[in-house]
Amino acid sequence: MTTPTTALDWNRSYRNGDHHAYWELSHPSAELVGFLAAHGPGTDRTALDIGCGTGWDTVALATAGYRVTGIDLSEEAVALAALRVTEENPPGPLPAFEQADVRELPFPEAAFDLLVDRGCFHHLGAQDRTAYARETARVLRPGGTLYLRGSRVNAFPFKPLTPEGLADVFTGEGFTVGPLLPFQLQTDAMSLPAHACVLTRTAPAATP
Ligand SMILES: C[S@@+](CC[C@H](N)C(=O)[O-])C[C@H]1O[C@@H](n2cnc3c(N)ncnc32)[C@H](O)[C@@H]1O
After folding, report:
1. Under a CB-based contact definition with an 8 Å cutoff, are residues 84 and 110 in contact?
2. Is the dihedral of CA 67, 53, 14, 24 positive or negative?
3. Confidence at residue 154, expressed as pLDDT on a 0 to 100 scale
4. Is the pLDDT of residue 1 over 60?
5. Which pLDDT score, from 0 to 100, does residue 79 have?
6. What is the DSSP string of 104-148?
7. Residue pLDDT, tens place only, 8-33
8. How far is the CA of 25 from the centre of ligand 1 (A)?
9. Which domains does the chain carry?
10. What's the pLDDT tens digit per position in 31-83?
11. Count of C-beta atoms within a 10 Å radius of residue 31
C-alpha cells in the first residue's frame, strides 16, 4: 500500500524536528503509565505500539515487562525510537522496531495481547480507519485490548474520536467499544482536548 495516510509528511517532520513543536513528549505519556500500573506486570505478554513515534510509550511498555514492538510509517521515527531505547535501556526484553503501515501489519493473527495508540488513529480518514480496525482485530488475540488516545475536537489535522465513529468502525470487527473518557493529551508544546478509549476484542470479526 503506497498511499499516504494523511496530509502530513511524517518523515520530513521528524527530520526537521517539527515533532517537537507539536506531538513530542519528553517522557512516557501519563495516561499510558496509569493504564499500565492498573493492569499489573506485562511479563509473558506482548504489546504493539502503533505509530510509535520516537518511542517513549514503547519504553513504558518495556518497563512494565511487555515484550513490545513499535511500528511507524516513518523510518525516521523508527530510527529515533531505536536510539531512545538504547539511551533509556528499559529492563526486560529489548523492544523491537519496524517501519510498517498499520493498514497492512506484518504480523500473524493473534500475535499481541495489547495494542496502544497515542495520536495515530486520529489522523486517519474513513477508509484508513476501516483498514486499521481490520488489521488490529487480526493481530490482537481474542480478549485482547486496544487502548486508543486521540483528539476529541474536529480541527485540522485531526479527525476526532467519537462514540458513533468508533462503534461504526470497530464493532463489525468484533470489538466492544468502552466509554470515551475526556482528558487533555499533553505534549511538550501543547495540550489537546482528547478522548481515551479501551476497546476489547470480544468476538471474531464478522464474515463479509
Ligand atoms: C502524532 S504522531 C504520534 C507519535 C507517538 N505515538 C507519540 O505519542 O509521540 C503520529 C505517528 O503516527 C505515524 N503514522 C501515521 N500514519 C501511520 C500508518 N498508516 N501506520 C503507522 N504509523 C503511522 C506517524 O509517522 C507518526 O509517528
Report:
1. no
2. negative
3. 95
4. no
5. 98
6. G-SS-TT-EEEEEEESSGGG--HHHHHHHHHHHHHHEEEEEEEEE
7. 799 999 999 999 999 999 999 999 99
8. 13
9. 26-201 (3.40.50.150)
10. 999 999 999 999 999 999 999 999 999 999 999 999 999 999 999 999 999 99
11. 19
Cell numbers linked to 12: 520530513
The residue assigned the cell 480496525 is 133
Rounded distance from Cα 37 to ligand 1 centre (Å): 24
How crowded is residue 16: how many other Cβ atoms within 10 Å of its Cβ? 12
Locate 38 and state its grid cell: 492498573
Question: What CA–CA distance (Å, rounded) separates 177 from 196?
Answer: 11
Question: What is residue 62's predicted lDDT score, i.e. its pLDDT?
Answer: 97
Is the pLDDT at 185 greater than 50? The verdict is yes
Q: Is 78 in the pocket of ligand 1 (CB under 6 A)?
A: no
- Is the C-beta atom of 72 inside 6 A of ligand 1? yes
53 lines ligand 1 (CB under 6 A): yes
CA distance 58 to 117: 10
**Residue nearest to ligand 1 atom 16, measured at CA:** 5
> How many CA atoms does the CB half-sphere of 184 hold within 13 Å?
6
